[in-house]
Amino acid sequence: MIEQNIGQLERKISKRIKDLYNDRFGQSPSQIICHFFDTEIVISLENSVTQAEQTLVKEGYASLAEQVRFYLDRIIKPELKKLIEEIIGESIIDLITNTNLATGRTGIIVVLNQLPEIWNAESITNGNVKYSPD
What we know:
4 strands; disordered C terminus
C-alpha cells in the first residue's frame, strides 16, 4: 500500500535540501518552496547565496562571485540529484539549477521519467498542457 502523499514528498525534499545547504555551505536558505507539476518538480530557495558571495558582489567582484557560484552549483548538483531520487524512489532525467546573486534566489527544476508512487497523484497541478512545437 502506498503511504506517502505529494505534500509529504515536497516537505521531505525541502527539509533535506535545507539540511544539505547548511551542511555544505554553512547556512540554510530562509525558505524553500517545492511543488510537483506532472513529471517535473520546481524548487525555489530564498537567501541561498553565501555571505562570501555577497561580500564579493558588494566589493565589486561580481564576476568572481558568479564563478564561485557556478562551481558550488556544479559540486552540489549530484548531491541534490541523489537526495531527491532517494526521497521519491524514481530516477531523474535532468536537474537544472540557477542562482541569481542579486536577489539571493536559487531555482531548481527536476525532470522525472515518471511520477513517484503516491496516493494522491490527482492533486498534482497538471493543468498546463505540454506544448510541443511542430
